[in-house]
Write a structure and sequence with these properties.
- This protein has 161 residues and is of the alpha+beta class.
- The protein has helices at residues 5-14, 16-45, 125-158; strands at 50-66, 71-84, 87-91, 105-111, 114-120.
- It has a 5-stranded antiparallel beta sheet with strand order 3-2-1-4-5, with no helix packed on it.
- A hairpin with a 2-residue loop joins strand 4 and strand 5.
- It is elongated, with a radius of gyration of 24 Å.
Length: 161
């Protein structure tokens, strides 16, 4: 006895697996939307900006308190230097916190009227990578879950006792 595909999908999304897949889908979607919106806003802000290369200058320790472990932890923030009109400016991108292996150089775009205002070029590529990995995992889970549910429903539809 063949069960219509529409019924299989309906039963699948009524199951606990369907709820889990929907939650995974929404989490993956939020990562992609966040990365895309941030990249778009940076690109829009930096249309008239000039590009420069910032070199690693130093790192600064930052003490944070971890309440769950009841102790202080040290993270490191990278500080990068770039030169505009023979004057030094410093950039401190947030995404390097917690990592002591800093990149030697970063591409930045700065506002020519105020070089203290800058954006990091491709700063959200790590977010895109996380989103891509989440989407691949999501696809595999959805595919396996769909196949499993389909086999389960077909088996019990044909083996009623």
């Amino acid at each position: 006895m063949e069960i219509p595909k529409k019924e299989i999908i309906k039963k699948m999304f009524k199951s606990i697996y369907g709820v889990g897949y929907i939650i995974l889908f929404l989490v993956g979607l939020s990562f992609i939307l966040s990365a895309t919106i941030n990249a778009y806003l940076d690109k829009k802000q930096s249309i008239e900006y000039k590009e420069a290369v910032a070199t690693f200058y130093s790192s600064k320790p930052i003490e944070t308190y971890n309440a769950s472990e009841n102790k202080f932890e040290t993270e490191y923030e990278g500080i990068y230097k770039f030169v505009v009109n023979d004057q030094n400016y410093y950039a401190s991108p947030l995404y390097t916190k917690g990592n002591t292996n800093f990149k030697k150089t970063l591409k930045i775009k700065y506002d020519p009227t105020n070089p203290n205002v800058y954006v990091i070029v491709n700063a959200y590529s790590e977010d895109y990578l996380i989103a891509l990995v989440l989407w691949i995992i999501l696809f595999i889970c959805l595919r396996n879950g769909y196949d499993t549910e389909k086999k389960y429903i077909e088996y019990y539809a044909t083996h009623r006792e």
